[in-house]
Amino acid sequence: MTEAILLVGGKGTRLRPLTVHTPKPMVPAAGVPFLTHQLARARAAGVEHIVLATSYLAEVFEPYFGDGSALGLHIEYVTETEPLGTGGAIRNVASRLRSAPDDPVLIFNGDILTGLDIRALVDTHETSGADVSLHLTRVADPRAYGLVPTDPTGRVTAFLEKPQTPEEIVTDQINAGAYVFRRSVIDTIPAGRPVSVERETFPGLLSSGAHLQGMVDSTYWLDLGTPQAFVRGSADLVLGRAPSPAVPGRRGESLVLPTARVAPDAKLTGGTVVGEDAEVGEGARISGSAILSGAVVEPGAVITDSLVGAAARVGARTALSGAVVGDGASVGADNELRDGVRVWCGATLPAGAVRFSSDQ
What we know:
Helices cover about 20% and strands about 25% of the residues. It is built from seven helices and 28 strands. A seven-stranded mixed beta sheet has the order 5-4-1-6-9-8-10, with helices on both faces. It comes from Streptomyces huasconensis. Belongs to the transferase hexapeptide repeat family.
């Protein structure tokens, strides 16, 4: 098994302002673009050829990853001129695949952090003789997700919309965003128009009698669709809770990149990462947070479960909790931002302007 498609074309609207200047897969997590972790895990599982299905800010991917040789991969790029959805994106890159009709092709969503055993998913696909195999995970509260029930052999029996009542929760299994397609199945997806693999392709295959196999793997799994989830994912990578061979340093309470400057008495805990050329001042306390490249955290600031964007500044004694400060923004001294507050890229918040806030 040597081939995969990564779907990295989404706009990342829920992640704004993190994605104003940067596509979601390129936002740094644990010191490197999130996509680096996915590529490294795919390579570790034996994948050699990867096609990136790009759209939003497509021009930033190739200058960073090039031909993929630095990661031991061969990477190709296909850009959608108009958004095609997940199924349409898969079909749009089909001409770049090298597999024979019955060969397996791995497909990953570009916003899922997971400990999935990739080899086991491919083995399940091949031993079951499935047309498509899906990674399924179990969640405590499946109401926010589509449900994927299976029979005792793991064969998928239905794709159910988000349940509205307790009676509709017939399983705790959900689509976890990683698939193995038989190569020939990809060519059956309509070309040149938007297609949702979740809402159109999979239900259509099931109704036509195709064999769709589910493999439940309930190791680490996190959808990085919100700023809070993204910050948590970055921290879990640093702490070692989420696996990745691409974390640029030892796992632990914090990860400080080599060119960052951290005051000796600053305290970094909870999987905090301090990016390249960032500065953390005296007495600052940062927990479970991401301080991106070139950002400045002034003395005495207290930052918890938050993200400070590239070249942003957090003033002295300012407290952030569950907040996001966009690239190049400046939050003056003695502010207090909490509970989902987002400061837009380039914005300036004067000293002492906000003492507290609720979710907005």
